[in-house]
Amino acid sequence: MSNSPRAVFLDHASLDLGDLDLAPLRQVFGELVLHDASTGEQAAERLQGAQVAISNKVRLDADTLDACPELKLVLVSATGTNNIDLSAARERGITVANCQGYGTASVAQHALMLLLALATRLPDYQAAVRAGAWQRASQFCLLDFPIIELQGKTLGILGHGELGGAFARLAEALGMRVLYGVLPGRPARADRLPLEELLPQVDALSLHCPLTEQTRHLIGAAELALLKPHALLLNTARGGLVDEQALADALRAGHLGGAAFDVLSEEPPRHGNPMLAADIPRLIITPHNAWGSREARQRIVGQLSENARAFFAGAPIRVVNG
């Protein structure tokens, strides 16, 4: 392989808003070609002559990999690798490495923001002030929407990895009691409650687990019915973890104190989504941007360069298809 490898970043604009320092990446490669975005069809053409492909969400399937005989390394500028055919890459001797743990602080902070916004009814009070309700009030304050004090309340967490643990520590700092649930297909543990025992106890439930066939629609109509009528539901993990129609129905029916999601089952939601209807009360949706602080995105740049350097040194790290 050349001592000055050529790398092509297929969807650079998904990471860099013009605010990142790409010097760590440029120092690794003899040439770094940046494309704001690429379709799957464009990928094969743009990767000609490249030893390294960098992709966030651009799909690299077996046919694309076959069309790029010089490709030796795929760097994923995210944790999820569902857009890469990992087995096809392995069969062709192509190493795939991802980024890990870069957004822990950012996502935990975002989840806390969503929890606080729901508990304090922030969107409702903002809308009331804009509509002139405070200006017309008969007293100095407006208390039209019930506010929940989180101290002493119980938070349930599904997915006690790095992100779930970081959010738990923030919640405990607010004086919340934290309980953990066991995920489907995982072995029973003394410190994890079965879902049917966890859900009735919690005042808020936060999802931090991966989306698998076992966790798809982990929270559906039956599980929502087990939650307390005032419970809050947070999802900063993956949209498919929750039956979105069931949640929309539950919120319309007045069951649940509110929900806040940073993820949907289709992103972007070009074909509509039941949770985007205008008549759903006590629902906050953010556009999958919990991970996107400048600091977190700069960490991705650092990890991409670390992964590349390690590969060329003969000791690959963060390999996901080994």
Automatic annotation (TrEMBL):
<dbReference type="InterPro" id="IPR006140">
    <property type="entry name" value="D-isomer_DH_NAD-bd"/>
</dbReference>
<keyword id="KW-0560">Oxidoreductase</keyword>
<feature type="domain" description="D-isomer specific 2-hydroxyacid dehydrogenase catalytic">
    <location>
        <begin position="20"/>
        <end position="321"/>
    </location>
</feature>
<dbReference type="GO" id="GO:0016616">
    <property type="term" value="F:oxidoreductase activity, acting on the CH-OH group of donors, NAD or NADP as acceptor"/>
</dbReference>
<keyword id="KW-0520">NAD</keyword>
<dbReference type="GO" id="GO:0051287">
    <property type="term" value="F:NAD binding"/>
</dbReference>
<dbReference type="InterPro" id="IPR006139">
    <property type="entry name" value="D-isomer_2_OHA_DH_cat_dom"/>
</dbReference>
<dbReference type="Pfam" id="PF00389">
    <property type="entry name" value="2-Hacid_dh"/>
</dbReference>
<dbReference type="InterPro" id="IPR036291">
    <property type="entry name" value="NAD(P)-bd_dom_sf"/>
</dbReference>
<comment type="similarity">
    <text>Belongs to the D-isomer specific 2-hydroxyacid dehydrogenase family.</text>
</comment>
<dbReference type="Pfam" id="PF02826">
    <property type="entry name" value="2-Hacid_dh_C"/>
</dbReference>
<feature type="domain" description="D-isomer specific 2-hydroxyacid dehydrogenase NAD-binding">
    <location>
        <begin position="112"/>
        <end position="290"/>
    </location>
</feature>
<dbReference type="InterPro" id="IPR050418">
    <property type="entry name" value="D-iso_2-hydroxyacid_DH_PdxB"/>
</dbReference>
<protein>
    <submittedName>
        <fullName>Glycerate dehydrogenase</fullName>
    </submittedName>
</protein>
